[in-house]
Write a structure and sequence with these properties.
The complex is a heterodimer of chains A (about 230) and B (about 425). By secondary structure, chain A is an alpha/beta fold. Chain A has helices spanning about 45-50, 75-85, 100-105, 105-110, 115-120, 125-135, 155-165, 185-200, 225; strands at about 5-10, 20-30, 35-40, 60-65, 70, 85-90, 170-175, 205-210, 220. Chain A has a single domain, classed as Rossmann fold (3-Layer(aba) Sandwich). Chain A starts with a strand and ends in an 8-residue tail after the last helix. Chain B has 2 domains: about 5-45 and about 285-415, no CATH class; about 55-270, no CATH class. Helix content of chain B is about 50%, strand content about 15%. Chain B has helices at about 5-15, 15-50, 65-70, 85-90, 120-125, 150-155, 205-210, 255-260, 275-285, 285-325, 330-370, 385-415, and strands at about 55-60, 80-85, 95-110, 110-115, 125, 130, 135, 145-150, 165, 165-170, 185-190, 200-205, 215, 220, 240, 240-245, 270. The chains are: A alpha/beta (about 230), B alpha+beta (about 425). Chains A and B meet through α1, α2 and α4 of A and α1, α10 and α11 of B.
């Protein structure tokens, strides 16, 4: 099995600090795999996500994604890689307030020809592709033209999920996407997200401090075990 | 760029109130800058057009600039006159087409009195070779008749038939009046936008007549000559302040100038008005540059405002920029986004400012001309003004690179999660 994502002997130290905040000996994620990463704040999970998304580059070690050595690419090439292959969902404030729901979902297609192309493989138009995703995520068509800020937090998170999935990127990274939701909606959102990632054949990296959600995942990682950096607390 | 433009537009629309304030500030300062520049050019044009069609201005030997000051602008007092026989010799010279003798020294309520001949109304030209035109009445014919410049008549509220008395000397108060010999207003000139507007014109003989019973700048004690009797005296002037000369052919102007410089009768000086006027104007360049510097400062201040507004807005846009970045915008895209907005605002501000100025000059031009005698052009921007506008847009774009660069740095430092 070739790994979709592979980290090997990775050390990351924030500029100006002596000790690394992240040390990972080895981590592999396969295509289609759904991984739950648990960690308290300060455990290095944000750093890990930034490394996986190619925003940060480790001082030591290798980050490989889709067979490409991310850690050796230029900043511009990593930017390109991210928009072509990675969908991101954050805890909150995912949406651009002055764009409609549809325009928010189509944002990656604006910047990536690959995402645009892949979105058009399964739909006649970009709007149709975005609409199909939104409908799958239980967002009624009358909301699509609304300004993103006029939605509830739960709806906003589903729009963010649709945006992460449009153009079928190989990797979806979700950073505490359910923290702003109440418990009942957390489960519903998680089910939707997992289902859609599976449908899009995207690997899902789901980061949360909430152990309760771990039950949904077959593979669970704990930052406390994964990160060997002395400075990391958990 | 193409994929950024709709984003930039929507983002700008979202912040339209702040941005329109910035735009208004830039537009107003551009209006000011262009307005000052145009006023400067119009003032210069008006200045150069105070006299035209005159080939030489002749006076007693002094400085050319001084001669222009009193012969054209009726400012200052001539210290020396030229004799009437020289004036006659000049008029008889074969190369000379016409002469206009000018005699200054008296005033009426602060407005200069000019003694001259009917040739003045026939030959004097201003602006683009425009002749004087009477708005009302006729040129003076009788002895105690006067023709007023437009501004003098309007400010002092005189109409045809009014009687005015002249004062000896220049200034506003403390002058001795020629009270026994009042003048009747027989004509009022149309507005010219030149010093003619402020002038009270009388005949040379009248100038002589009111000074018959004067000596050394004061009335002779115990001697008064009533107006009815002045005709019994010889009213031929003994001297005048300056003479405007028109030649038959312009080509003879330097020969004539030389001839007058070497005139045997008395020391004379002949000045080419165009040359002397530009010398005079050069003396005013300090004020001119000060004006330009002030308007440049105004523009600089409004750009500082633009940068401040955009930089302050950057804090609240940090999240927006991070979302864009997480969804594929490169730091370079964010830089472009901000620089695009800044230059667009500057461009829009410059255009609005130019339009505003055109509207203002169209609306206020007649009023300014009526009150200040300054003819404002309502015209498309001149090449110089376009250059100025290009500078404004250039500097504005440069100024907006600063917030762009800051956004670029922030987006690199923030990564995917803005620390706000």
């Amino acid at each position: 099995m070739t790994a979709l994502l592979a980290l090997e002997d990775v050390h990351y130290r924030w500029p100006g600090q002596d000790a690394p905040c992240l040390e990972i000996a080895r981590l592999q994620v396969a295509a289609d795999e759904q991984v739950f990463i648990h960690g308290a704040s300060g455990s290095g999970k944000s750093t890990l996500l930034n490394l996986l998304a190619g925003v940060l580059v480790p001082q030591r070690g290798r980050v490989e994604a889709l067979g490409q050595p991310l850690s050796q690419l230029t900043a511009a090439a990593r930017d390109r890689f991210r928009v072509d292959h990675v969908g991101l969902i954050f805890q909150q404030f995912n949406l651009i307030p002055y764009l409609s729901v549809l325009d928010n979902v189509l944002l990656p297609c604006r910047f990536s020809a690959r995402r645009r192309q892949r979105a058009l493989e399964s739909a006649a138009s970009l709007h149709e592709a975005a609409g199909a995703l939104l409908a799958h995520l239980d967002l009624a068509p009358e909301m699509w033209r609304r300004n993103a800020t006029r939605l509830s937090v739960g709806q906003q998170q589903r729009v963010a999920a649709a945006r992460a999935l449009i153009g079928r990127p190989e990797i979806v990274i979700a950073d505490e996407p359910t923290s702003a939701l109440d418990a009942a909606r957390q489960d519903a959102f998680l089910d939707l997200l997992r289902r859609e990632c599976a449908a899009a054949r995207a690997a899902l990296l789901f980061v949360s401090h909430d152990q309760r959600l771990a039950a949904h995942f077959s593979r669970r990682l704990d930052m406390a075990e994964l990160n060997r950096a002395a400075g990391a607390t958990s | 760029m193409n994929h950024l433009l709709p984003l930039a537009l929507k983002s700008a629309w979202n912040r339209r109130y702040t941005l329109s304030l910035t735009l208004i500030a830039i537009a107003l300062s551009v209006t000011l800058l262009l307005g000052i520049e145009r006023l400067r050019q119009d003032a210069r044009a008006g200045f150069a057009q105070a006299i035209s069609g005159t080939d030489l201005v002749v006076g007693a030997r002094s400085s050319p600039v001084q001669l222009m000051l009193y012969a054209v602008f009726r400012l200052g007092e001539a210290t020396q006159n030229l004799g009437w026989d020289s004036v006659q010799a000049l008029a008889a010279h074969p190369a000379v087409a016409w002469t206009i003798p000018l005699s200054l020294g008296d005033s009426h309520r602060g407005y200069p009195v000019l003694g001259t001949t009917p040739a003045y109304f026939k030959h004097f030209r201003h602006g683009d070779k425009q002749a004087l035109r009477l708005a009302q009445g006729k040129p003076f014919a009788g002895l105690f008749e006067t023709v007023l410049g437009a501004e003098a008549a309007q400010r002092l509220g005189y109409r045809l038939g009014d009687r005015i008395t002249l004062a000896h000397g220049l200034g506003d108060s403390g002058l001795t009046e020629h009270g026994d010999k009042p003048f009747t207003v027989v004509g009022i000139l149309a507005r010219t936008g030149t010093p003619v507007d402020r002038t009270v014109h009388i005949g040379l003989e009248a100038m002589e007549a009111i000074h018959l019973d004067w000596q050394g700048g004061a009335p002779l004690r115990g001697l008064t000559i009533p107006p009815e009797l002045v005709r019994k005296f010889d009213l031929t002037p003994k001297a005048v302040t300056a003479v405007l000369v028109g030649l038959k052919t312009r080509t003879g102007v330097f020969a004539m100038q030389r001839y007058l410089s070497n005139y045997r009768g008395e020391p004379l000086m002949a000045v080419l008005p165009g040359v002397a006027l530009s010398q005079l104007w050069d003396m005013l360049t300090v004020a001119e540059h000060a004006l330009l510097a002030i308007s440049a400062l105004v523009v600089a201040v409004s750009f500082a405002g633009l940068v401040a507004v955009v930089l302050a807005g950057l804090g609240e846009r940090r999240r927006e920029l991070a979302i864009l970045r997480a969804n594929g915008a490169r730091p370079r895209d964010l830089f472009t986004l901000l620089a695009l907005e800044g230059s667009a605002i500057t461009l829009a501000g410059a255009v609005t400012g130019a339009l505003l100025l055109t509207a203002l000059t169209a609306a206020l031009g007649p009023w300014v001309e009526a009150h200040y005698g300054l003819a404002l052009r309502t015209a498309l921007p001149s090449p110089e003004e376009l250059q100025l506008l290009a500078w404004v847009v250039g500097v504005g774009t440069l100024a907006s690179l600063l917030p762009g660069y800051r956004a670029y740095r922030l987006s690199l430092a923030d990564g995917l999660t803005p620390r706000v």
